[in-house]
Specification:
homodimer; mainly alpha; Transcription Regulator spoIIAA; 9 strands
Chain lengths: 593, 593
Amino acid sequence: MDGQSAADQNRDNDRLNKNLARLLPALSWAANYNRGILGGDLLAAVIVTIMLIPQSLAYALLAGLPAEMGLYASILPLVAYALFGTSRTLSVGPVAVVSLMTATAIGKVAAVGSIDYATAAIAMAMMSGLILLAMGVLRFGFLANWLSHPVVSGFISASGIIIALSQLRHILGIAAHGDTLPELVSSLAGNLSDINVITLATGLVAIAFLFWARSGLKPLLQRLGMSADTASIVAKAGPVLVILATTMVSYLAGYGAQGVALVGSVPQGLPSLSMPSFDLELWSELAVSALLISIIGFVESVSVGKTLAAKRRQRINPNQELIALGAANMASAVSAGFPVTGGFSRSIVNFDAGAQTPGASIMAAVGIGLAALLLTPVLFFLPKATLAATIIVAVTSLLDLQIVKKAWHYSISDFIAVVMTITATLVLGVELGVLAGIVASVLLHLYKTTQPHIAVVGAVAGTEHFRNVQRHNVITQNNILSLRVDESLYFANASYLEDYVYRFIAENKELEHVILQCTAINEIDMSALGALDAINHRLHEQGLKLHLSEVKGPVMDGLEKSDFLQQLSGQVFLTHHQAVTTLKHDEIEPYII
Amino acid sequence: MDGQSAADQNRDNDRLNKNLARLLPALSWAANYNRGILGGDLLAAVIVTIMLIPQSLAYALLAGLPAEMGLYASILPLVAYALFGTSRTLSVGPVAVVSLMTATAIGKVAAVGSIDYATAAIAMAMMSGLILLAMGVLRFGFLANWLSHPVVSGFISASGIIIALSQLRHILGIAAHGDTLPELVSSLAGNLSDINVITLATGLVAIAFLFWARSGLKPLLQRLGMSADTASIVAKAGPVLVILATTMVSYLAGYGAQGVALVGSVPQGLPSLSMPSFDLELWSELAVSALLISIIGFVESVSVGKTLAAKRRQRINPNQELIALGAANMASAVSAGFPVTGGFSRSIVNFDAGAQTPGASIMAAVGIGLAALLLTPVLFFLPKATLAATIIVAVTSLLDLQIVKKAWHYSISDFIAVVMTITATLVLGVELGVLAGIVASVLLHLYKTTQPHIAVVGAVAGTEHFRNVQRHNVITQNNILSLRVDESLYFANASYLEDYVYRFIAENKELEHVILQCTAINEIDMSALGALDAINHRLHEQGLKLHLSEVKGPVMDGLEKSDFLQQLSGQVFLTHHQAVTTLKHDEIEPYII
């Protein structure tokens, strides 16, 4: 082997390592792992584990699945994301909105509690994983951009309301069902006579305690002599305390005999690995839902990841995130879990507790694994009302009705988009809700471009700058109409411009020149080119010249490919100032000479 | 009655007259009608009548309807449009594309030749009329703008191909059916052995004569001693000559006994007036098709009307046109006709023949009425192949495959739109074809806005104007990044800008200021405002200031309603020149003092 080939090999190795590092971001943090980082990660892992146990059980309940599936969905998916994800602190697992969407989707193909139902949930995780992976490989991360901020906020808030309502039945101890606000309300109202008082009391106490614990537990612990840090950690264990307390009361008071719904027997041990069902009929029935779940899960996860990364001046890579979430969902599917994504509250806790790397998530996965091995017998007596209480309290943080107010103040179309999304989600359910939001925001955006703002502009004294005559004190010329069209010209607004120009020239008989200042025209498509051509000819017939100014490079490239510039009665000027100076001069000259 | 109330009454009368004139544009031309106008209109009416008789029969055949329905659709609709329409010279009646769309739509609900089929066609005219009327009253004329020029051209060309293919069976004398290119081709190919040689010979001779007549008949007539004007008029009667000749041959040679398909017995007399069937099931089945037929018919009619009006410096009012076309279709429905719209060839003939007012159309309606009363017995022996030949020759003028070449040269997205429309129309049929075209052009437009052109700009020497550094020889400052984003900022491109800015500042360490020149930013929605906020904070953390320049009035109004301007680390400048001058100065000052 000579020197050349050794250098070649080194270069090949470098390239291989680089590609490997891109594919497996874990390599970048694992290489520098040390005892200091381990300390931070371990503490975060303990806190997240304590938080995840009740959350996992609760979101399994929300999805209508057996409690153990919540634990299963919080083991391997965390490891998979830790290996492939680009966020250092994101915590993956079952989350509220995705669990609700899963319940809605699989509720259409199987009855809650049936084996088919659990099978469908596992298949959904696999489909969602494959969709996310494919989107990542194809670099389709940009699809998430179609969900505007008002649509996402509105959707999550409305989902929160539906989630809270869906859990009320566990608090009241009655049967109720439905995926929409009207269904849930009428179903709950119809069964109100079946209320189980003990269940209700347990649920209300749990809710009250959890709300209080948010703000009141930490100061109390500190007053009892605990250090601020310890108190802060113990306070996050509020849900665990409620679970322990209500489980004990349930056991001692014999809740089971009094008609209180309990979690019941939960299999002890780790999930066995197996491939999910590849039933073609089932898969095709779930396909659209799986796509929606994937996109919503991705958007939620990426927005959390971005927020946290920005705080430590790190960055995440959306396309790699798709791959990592895909891996996490496939890991969930092969270990009898259900769809997962990066969750807001758990990631914040992980971050605040000092997690430095995804190593924290791997250790949390070990923690949940231990819980699945050792703690499940304790869960037998846990009232479902307690889990419902943790869900209800958790989703109140999703409710952001401020967005409606903000949108109302900021812009009417953002307001319409958010109201449409909230209404559609509440009335038609989560899937149609998110679709309605996307469609509404796209149509509103398009609608605005069909009637563009057109300003008559004049020169700002002392500058070469031109502004709207209605807003600024500017200098205009009687023989020149300077128009600034504030939109790209395309088929949907081409005739609007035509009408505007014709109306204007009909009312202004002194005009000799019309100059279109093209600063905001980023595109002229063929239909708009036809309209410009028509305007040019019409003006020419009436003895007026059409000029263009400040045409951008890409637009000019297009015009040069057509014969429009040969037809144009006037000229194309580099700047509007030059255009007005030239054309004004032309008019004055005859009088000077 | 005192003076005051008389003045009031006058004013009321004036207002009433004005409203009436807007509602009934016929009043404006009828008031000034005189003998000179009558002469022009009468001549045009005679020519149009001669042209309309074969066209009406042929388009009835194309729609799969009895020949007399073609005549019926050319009587009352002309009168209705003459009363309500705003074009002086548009000629309304059955047209090729709308007849094809009608055949496609009603072919789905009834068998060709059945009474139900004719009933459905009449119902379709009524539905289309009501839809057009509603669109007019609601001022929804802008909907037509969603059909871009490439989509309309591609759609009409592809429809022309389908029409020509669908008529081939009448030329060949074989059975064939289908609404798409593959269906028609395989259906024709499968029945080729049934060819009727006499039918084929008649059809081919008719086609050859009609093509020759287009260019050769007028010079021949002139050589035979006819004046240029008379020759021009007689030459337009080419189709009538073919009909007369082939009918005579058919009668004399006993075509009927030799298996040649003839028009057969056509009821003599005017249509009886009656309300069309209001079968709810039928109407709901036809609803989507009726909407598409209405929009396509409107677009075709308005584009013809606009072209002709422009030639005489007249204008048409799109919303009133909707009302007039609505009235014309309802008139067609109550007189046993089928959907109609303003046709290109007949309107050109009407215009060229010197029609001054819609009075010409009213007289043409009388002419067609006379034909229905007197001429129908003659039609018994008319071979269908002759009518098919007139259709085939007529639709060749619809084929504009130049549009594909033009779009290819002008812009890739226009090219994709036209190719998608043509392919979808040929392969999937007219309805899905036009829908595919609309969806494709909207998505292409949106896609372009998601990855906006962003230019780094510098000052053009000797001006206050800033241009792209890659296209112009401009002056830049090391400490200032001047960015011009060539698109409105909204949810679909907000993160694109964010990524662009971050990437740029990571590579340029000397920067102190980033100035966004906002000339092309016509809107900043809430999602984009969030992105700007994030950029502002991120730059601030890295010691950079974000500034805006040349923010438009409406955009500034929005920003002022938010707290973005309070958060902004830099300033908002009236002009980009001022921004650069100010910020450059700031930097130099320390060295001067």
